[in-house]
Amino acid sequence: MCGLAGFIGFTNNAELAENANKIQQHRGPRQPVCVARRVYCFCPPTPVDHRSVEAANQPLHKNDLAVIFNGEIYNYKELQAKLISEKQVVFQTSSDTEVVLEMYKHYGPECLNYFLGMFAFAVYDKNSNELFIARDHFGIKPLFYTQINGAFAFSSELKTLVTIPGFNKKINAKSLVSCLNYIWISGNETMFDGCFKLPPAHYMIYNKAGELKLVKYWDLKENAASGGSADMASTAQDVANTIELSVKRHMVADVPVSCFLSGGLDSSLISVLAKKSNEHLSTYTIGTGDKDKAVEKMPDDEKYAALLAEMHHFDHHVIKISPDIIKDLPHMVRHLDEPIGDPAAINTYLICKAAREKGVKVLLSGMGADEIFFGYRRQKATLMAVRFNLLPGPLKYVIAKVVGMLPVKISGKGFKFGRWAKRFMSFATMPLNEAYMRSYSYYDTNQLKELVKPDYWSGIDAINKEHEEKFNAKFKNDPINQICNTDISMFMLGLNLTYSDRASMAASVEVRVPFIDRLVVSKAMEIPGNLKIRKGISKFILKKAAEKWLPEKIIYRPKASFGAPIRSWISNDLRVMVDELLSEESITKRGFVNYAVVKKLIADDRNGTADNAYQVYQLLTLELWCMEYLDAHPGYQTLNAQTNDKQQYVS
């Protein structure tokens, strides 16, 4: 675990680096003996801050090169052997950091295509005076950068860059609209104009003339056979073998590796395979109170997780969600760096925090399987919409009228069918690309124009264009893989990987994702769509592969999301916060959205005529983010809830 930061061309480089060291401390907390805190100058005036274990000897200097590295290279031992035999390299350490440096020395940017892992790293060449910065194939590890008055800075966290004097805090219109529409930010922009994320599978070179060059080094191949036929049995076996090897690679660590366990297919499969490498595997499950389950109609994950834990003798732990959401939400907003309105981030933080208190430093997650194997309900619902459009017009009209009258909440209890039916009808008659975008959007274009002030309408066109380009980029003859590919570049990157890294790092725990492995994703995207869903069964080929290790009651149980009782929180715990932070005064002060629309969203949610909990939660998240990143001085405050006025949410 570590955090990167580098500064070139500022008058106070060393001071900025030391400040970065403090801000990103949670990414590499000081431990007895094994964790270093350093401010390093590649050469004047280029200080770089890095936190990592002493064994990795970072920053590592060798042969006129210096490297700082964040992440894990799971096949580094094989690469080390390759370098020794083919290049006669003499290694000074046993770390993957030195392997990264030597691979770059001997293969240049081509080294990136040898790596299996998650990473963000920077190599400085003292001879050319160039800085080479790279990010992993899917964006598992973060890397932000900006240029300010000719100077250059990069960091693992946005909050580090925001503290730089002269940082431009002008809000990016596309990112604002994106965070409202999706509840996360798509693409490579941040909430601020002029500050960016290095895209996945890209590297950049910053030369001595101050020029910045971005290069894409890898792209997912489109299998020409997609949409065709494939042998189910042999394909399932290939999937099983590829995932098993990935989990084995991800278990390589200097400390014991544990697992998230929801009791669903993905985390159960990862946990059972991980047990092969760790006989005393510990697993962690989120538990939810009965009151929250009633409002949310949440599945009983604990039951299935306990069943699997008993079968395989896991050291199993159930972590009850903290009811102190008033305190946890502002804390999470600060750590997420961006206004991300998915409460799963709080789940991740709480479970990682509890695991860390038990000494756990590394957890495996089943994240990514739904994206690459077609496991989300909205994916399946989009295909259903195609069939719905074949119905006679009068019948579609009647169905729409009936669904419109359905409640989403009755006597304080959630009505799941009403929620799902209303969401389905919001996109059921659209073309495939638009339908899929709408399936995970919270507004259509007209609703966004009503919500957002005209100054930010350019962002509406930008996100529509972006989604269309992503959707049509590949697999046009296979709509199932077309949807999967869109999720890889949009949803998986913008939401799941983002909150997972930042929330886990807030608890100083490293989360690894075996499904989001270059070989696993490539294998999954070679599989034709007709093997990913069959006879209405989503993730069909993965489920067939999992039959080798899991019982049917786990494999074929109803789909359950890794969520949180957001509707219960909005209705109960967060009700006062909503009234205070989304008041007419607050909304008008920001100037982003129209108060009348916000007021109606809240009212409709409370009277049960619409399910607006996520929209309200995201608006709340956005205001908390503004209080921290626009009003306050990021990097020095600890968000808390100790007073009774509005200032309780940031201090």
Describe this structure in words.
By secondary structure, the chain is α+β, with helices and mostly antiparallel strands. The chain has a domain at 4-216: 4-Layer Sandwich (Glutamine Phosphoribosylpyrophosphate, subunit 1, domain 1), CATH 3.60.20.10. The protein is built from 27 helices and 21 strands. The strands form five sheets. A six-stranded antiparallel β-sheet has the order 2-3-1-9-8-10. Strands 4-5-6-7-11-12 form a six-stranded antiparallel β-sheet, covered by helices on one side. It has a five-stranded parallel β-sheet with strand order 15-14-13-16-19, with helices on both faces. The radius of gyration is 24 Å and the shape is globular.
